Amino acid sequence: MEFLPITTAEDHRVQEIYTSYTTTFPVDEQRDKEQFTGLFSNPHVKFMSVIHESEAIGYLILWELSNFVFVEHFEVFEAFRSKKLGSHIINHISENYPGVILEIEPADLSEDAARRYSFYQRNNFSLIDDTHIQPSYGEGKKSLKLWLLANYTPENMEEAKKEIYDIVYH
To answer: Is 36 helix (H, G, I), strand (E, B) or coil?
Structure first.
């Protein structure tokens, strides 16, 4: 499995990724096209295409923060799901970044949300905050109550949350 950086919005892979992103994630969890392409000029963002057996199978949008990495979006394209590839991707992230925080919908929201929570638990992530509010991504979009999960125990939870709010959602 390869993790290839995408450094410009003009990269040919970006359109396929954006199309899948807008299909997979709920509207309130999406950046609009302008915000999305703006990620490529943010020095904190690491955007990667995930390649398996010469095919693009998904992508990662990571934020490299002071002492942890925040996974804003992570997707295995629909055609490649249920093949344990997501676990390989999460293991790669955990091996390369000792501190990883991500957000998910509360497990009691739906069967899919419960399945997602179970997936992360199997991959050594645990619930660190069930009061997190993801700020609105913009006009017409709602703030969301999400859970924060991590593969470690942050020393200062409030500080970590403040950094996510100030840098990722500014």
So the answer is: helix
The β-bridge relationship of strands 69-76 and 100-104 is parallel
Per-residue model confidence as pLDDT tens digits over 90-108: 999 999 998 999 999 999 9
Parallel, antiparallel or unpaired: strands 126-129 and 133-134: unpaired
What whole-number distance in Å separates Cα of residue 154 and Cα of residue 169? Answer: 20
| CB contact at 8 A, 141 and 133 | no
DSSP type of residue 137: -
Question: How far apart, in whole angstroms, are the C-alpha atoms of residue 26 and residue 129?
Answer: 21
Q: b or e along 67-89 (b: 16 or more beta carbons within 10 Å of the residue's beta carbon)?
A: ebbbbbbbbbbeebeeeebbebb
Structure tokens at 60: 């990662």
Backbone φ and ψ of 52, nearest 5°: -135, 125
- Token pair of 5 as six digits: 């950086």
Look up residue 27 and give its DSSP letter. Answer: G
Q: Which residue has the tokens 């309130």?
A: 28
Selected residue with higher pLDDT from 41 and 170? 41
